[in-house]
Each structure stands twice: as C-alpha cells, then as structure tokens.
Amino acid sequence: MALLADLFFQFAILFCVAFGGASALLPEMHRVVVEQKHWLDDATFTHLYAIAQAAPGPNGLVVTLIGWEVAGLPGALAATLGMCLPMSIVIYLLMRHWHRFAGHPVQLAVQMGVAPLAVGLVAAGAFMIGQAAGLAWGGLVLVGLVALLQMHTRLHPLWLIGLGAAAGLLGWV
Amino acid sequence: MPRVPAEPETPQPAAGAFSCTPPSLKELFLGFSSVGLSGFGGVLPFARRMLVEERKWLSPEDFNSLLGLCQFLPGPNVINLSVAVGARYRGVAGSVVAVLGLLGGPLLIVLALGALYSRFGDLPQVQGMLRGVAAAGCGLLVATAWRMGLAVSAKRVFLPFALLVFVLVALLRWPMPVVMVGLVLLAATVAHLYRKHHGAAG
Q1: Helix (H) or strand (E) holding A13
Q2: Which residues of B touch A112 (CB under 8 A)?
C-alpha cells in the first residue's frame, strides 16, 4: 500500500512540472525511478521506454509500464492515476476562466519563456535514454540516422522504430 | 483571441459551441478511443482531426484556445485536452469518460506488452530488439528537440535557456521540479521584458 501511494505521488509531482510532454520528463523519471528509488535498473528502464515507443497511444504510457513492473496491475493503475489526476482537476477548474487569461501579457510571457525550457528538456530526454541504454558506436550511428531521416523525409516514425528493432535484433546497437 | 464577456455559471457553456448537438457520453468515449489507438509517439494530430474535422465538436478557434490552455499548463497535454472537451459537453462524467476512452485501449495493449516482457524479457534477442527501439526513440527525440528549437522565437535570447536546462537536468542531474520552478520564473521575466522592448511583437 505504501508502495502504491509512493508511485501515485511520485508521478503526480512529476507531471505537475511536465512542460513539453512526457518525453521531456524522461530524465526526471529516470532520476526518481532508477537513481533515487531503485525501483528499476538502467536496462529495464530502457526496455520499458522502448515498449511504450512501439505501442499506440499517448507517450505518457511509459508511466503505466513502470508502475506495472514495480507493483503489478495495482502499480500500473496507481502510476497512471498519478499522471492524470492532478492536472486534470486543475484543467477542469480553469477551463471556464481561460478565455479571460488567454492573451494576457503574463500568459504570453510565460508561454514564450517555457518554450526554450521544453526544448532543453526533450534534448535531455534523448541524452538520458542514450545513456541508460549504454549505446555503443553502432547505436549512436542509428540515433543520428533516425534523427536525420525524421527531419528530412516524410517517413512514418513507425518505420524508423522498425529499423531500430531490426538493427537491435542483429546486434548492431 | 476572441474575448467572450464573462459568462454566467452554466453547466454546459453553449457560447461558441460549434456542434449542433452536444455529444453523448458514449460518443465521447468512442471518439476519444479512436484517437488513442491511432497514433504512435503522440496522438495530438489525430485528436485535432477527430475533434475539428470529423466530429466537429470544436471549431478550429475553440480547438486552438483549449489546446493553448492544455499546453500552457504542465501535464500530459492530450489527456488534459480530453478532460477539457469532456467537461465542456458533459461535466465531470464527460471528462472521466473521455480520458477512459483515450487511455483504455492503449492501456490494455501496453499492459499486454508488459506481461510479454515479464515473460520473455530475459531473451537476448528481445533485449537487443528493445535496445534498438530505444535508440530509434532517442533519434526521434533528437529530431523533436531540433524542430522545437527552430520554432523558438528570438533564439539568441532564449536558446541559452534550453542549454541551461540541458546542463542542469541531463548533466548535473538536478531535480527537475526545482529547476523548472526557478527557470520558468526567470525565463518568463526575461520574456516579459523582451516583449516590452520589442513592442510585444514576439
């Protein structure tokens, strides 16, 4: 029970500072789940991230998998609820008043200031995953290749994930 | 941004509503289910298509305004958006149903994959494959960060903040809540001054 409450609160706190979506949270998830709580090791964290990548749905579902791995089905539900609940309540209470605040100088300033922070967080997420996976040269080449293909072609990301899976299966990563 | 005068506390604000008939709980559930199951690595484009183009529950302006709120606040953006749309039409029950629709299908899939992982995760082939997928995911994140970076306005002023966040969070491993609370205040202050100096054009 204490573990479930801990899962709920850790993810609730995490998502209250989640600017830039779930990918931006990867470094903090890793810090809490692997380094601080020792719920998972580096390899498992990487694997769960990969599974969430390859499944349909919102990015945040890696949270569900972490909960599942730590404490089974109740853990999955506690972690998912922690992710959704706090900000859902805030949104519910604020949406009615949003039109009065939208366009206000303070809102525009915060929006402008948060954008570069989100960039740094997503880049940190990429760094974190690369580091936790312990990528060798082949892996780094794959990272670069996927990034270039994603930026310069209109290939569906699922193909790039398939490419990664094939390269990994062949032991190149 | 259209400024609607303060409206009275009505449970279902009809002002600016785009749809002729508000969706029922069942329709909300089904609509968001289709969104949740259609995207890989982010479902926001599918949410827009369903809400604005297919079901016409929101006008393009309403969508942008609600999304503005959901992206302005922290948290999982698409989940926030489904809460807002559900609440708009069916109150608390609508929000709950919309989120359940959005997450239900993907949750079951992810849990099934998690069960498979518990069973077969020790096989070297599976581990190799997942490492490869993680590397590909890392590449996708690099591309996302790059694209978001290109969209930042006044790069010389604001991109150093991105670098600062990267150093503090990725390299120095500071706790993110501390970093974010400090830097949001600082970056917003700089942005406020910048907008004042440049005639609020940015």
Answers
A1: helix A2-16
A2: 153, 158, 187-188, 191, 194-195, 202
